[in-house]
Amino acid sequence: MYEVLKRDGLAKRGRLQTVHGVIETPVFMNVGTAAAIKGAVSTEDLQEIKTQVELSNTYHLHVRPGDVVVKELGGLHKFMVWDKPILTDSGGFQVFSLAGLRRIKEEGVYFQSHIDGRKIFMGPEESMQIQSNLASTIAMAFDECPSSVADRNYIEKSVERTTRWLARCKKEMERLNSLPGTINPRQLLFGINQGGICEDIRIRHAKEIAAMDLDGYAVGGLAVGESHEDMYRILDAVVPHLPVDKPSYLMGVGTPANILEAVDRGIDFFDCVYPSRNGRHGHVYTNGGKLNLFNARYELDAGPIEEGCGCPACRTYSRAYIRHLLKAKEMLGMRLCVLHNLYFYNTMMEEIREAIEKGSYKEYKTKKLAKMAGQEV
């Protein structure tokens, strides 16, 4: 059950009750594609850095180790020893990202595995079956994410097919949740809005999927090459047509600034690889902007990544030491940067929730953006 606790303009402070615990929103989901956060981050670390939701990838876990293997071991929660909510994306994004290795048909998508080249078929039913085997808290509907530069005619046909696929996903999930051998018979289903950067197609699709009474709604197909201005324009157009009493999720987004702007437009779920990917390359987020710890200026810097930060890296280690680790290609340096970045994101979401509760979100957003840009307000 999802409940909106407070509104501040379009910004929502909500709470989603799930079989694996409560999700306080707005929330940033920490991305663990193959059931682990890249950068040697353990499940115990996730607890320490205030992670609410872990996100894993249906396609990648189907390829390796195999969703049937995970089911045999009791589902994804037992497999990775994580007792809080997990969202699994549907494999639909791989329809976009593995464009050179797939063929799309009405029944589904034919892939070549990016690992060993073997043939894989995934359609709505297969995606739901894999996600049911994984037993995640929230399953995403199988969709196609069209390119932001695709022509209008292609986008229209793609969105119509995604709607048909969604109806098949819903029917299959209801069937799977009714079976006696299902690990999580209370698995939730989120549908995905598509339509490129065409406002009218997006709005029409939002109305169609809103009528299907799903557990939540995502806006997909953004942050795939379009400008930030186009992203915000589409959110302004689409979010008002999604049910306000259901969670809204902006997939694959994004930077701290993207998140702050999207919350202001009514979005309350986010995920992105930026904090972990940037951390693995020595780029760390602070309230004063992003730092590159490879820079020589930090060679003798005995201070933490950010003063006052409570993450495991900042509580103990200096910028100089972490820079040394990165330069020496020691895994610990990468790990500490990833932990810091995820803690920064999770803490920012706490601040966002608090600001909405106080009715001061716009003021918070303005100050946060200015501070991260190195400006005074």
Secondary structural class: alpha/beta
The CATH topology of the largest domain: TIM Barrel
Estimate the strand proportion. 15-25%
| DSSP E strands, number | 16
SS summary, helix count: 15
Characterization of the model:
Keywords: Glycosyltransferase, Metal-binding, Queuosine biosynthesis, Transferase, tRNA processing, Zinc. Residues 11-372 form the tRNA-guanine(15) transglycosylase-like domain. Pfam families: TGT (PF01702). With 377 residues, this protein is α/β, with parallel strands linked by helices. It folds into 2 domains: 2-272, Queuine tRNA-ribosyltransferase-like (TIM Barrel, Alpha-Beta Barrel), CATH 3.20.20.105; 279-372, no CATH class. The chain contains 15 helices and 16 strands. The chain has helices at 43-48, 58-63, 67-72, 76-80, 92-97, 124-134, 152-177, 199-210, 228-238, 256-263, 274-280, 312-316, 319-327, 331-358, 361-372, and strands at residues 2-8, 11-18, 21-25, 27-31, 54-57, 86-89, 102-104, 109-112, 119-122, 138-140, 188-193, 216-219, 248-250, 269-271, 283-286, 289-292. The strands form 4 sheets. Strands 4-5-6-10-11-12-13-14 form an 8-stranded parallel barrel, surrounded by 4 helices. A 3-stranded antiparallel beta sheet has the order 1-2-3. The longest helix is centred in the C-terminal third of the chain and has 28 residues, at 331-358.
